[in-house]
Amino acid sequence: xxxxxxxxxxxxxxxxxxxxxxxxxxxxxxxxxxxxxxxxxxxxxxxxxxxxxxxxxxxxxxxxxxxxxxxxxxxxxxxxxxxxxxxxxxxxxxxxxxxxxxxxxxxxxxxxxxxxxxxxxxxxxxxxxxxxxxxxxxxxxxxxxxxxxxxxxxxxxxxxxxxxxxxxxxxxxxxxxxxxxxxxxxxxxxxxxxxxxxxxxxxxxx
Length: 206
Ligand SMILES: C[S@@+](CC[C@H](N)C(=O)[O-])C[C@H]1O[C@@H](n2cnc3c(N)ncnc32)[C@H](O)[C@@H]1O
Description:
Number of helices: 7
CATH architecture: 3-Layer(aba) Sandwich
CATH superfamily: Vaccinia Virus protein VP39
Distance between the termini: 41 Å
Shape: globular
Strand order of the largest sheet: 3-2-1-4-5-7-6
Largest sheet: 7 strands, mixed
Bound molecules: S-adenosylmethionine
CATH topology: Rossmann fold
């Protein structure tokens, strides 16, 4: 199955209910992001899923636009925001392709989403276009070098099964090169131990 709103709508409930794979690593990613944020910043999260990460960052920025093409995913974030009185996160149903440029943002997040987009290089390009000078791009991406042999075997299977979205075969070096080719400067390139993805922070020069 393609990486489609239909697929994510179907699995939204289970995806959201599943515990975070590694809470310590997740908290570290939140912290590494948070120390860059400024109270007057506008943030964009592309492929926000449950919205839990956007809601965690909400107290540290002025405003967050949290986008996802799955209505079922967004529903969870909207409900949580309403229940918790968080009023600076706007949940917007759109694909990456549907996001207009401008406006631009001080922080653009793409977490566990770049490898799901077949034309992942143009996704990185669009993210860079959506950034303001001085802003940061924060991403977490499964790459062929960082995935464990077990994950590689699973993905080989996943990529031939018509029921799951295909995972793009991106090398860590190719991802970094694409980020830099779009004028960003990589400030952090971290593979958490035992983790299948690489966490990259890059800045658009001011
Ligand atoms: C693996 S989940 C990650 C969700 C969240 N970022 C996280 O880290 O838990 C991927 C999310 O990206 C969304 N998504 C995938 N491709 C997208 C696209 N082209 N445009 C917008 N959303 C997309 C899916 O609907 C899904 O919610």
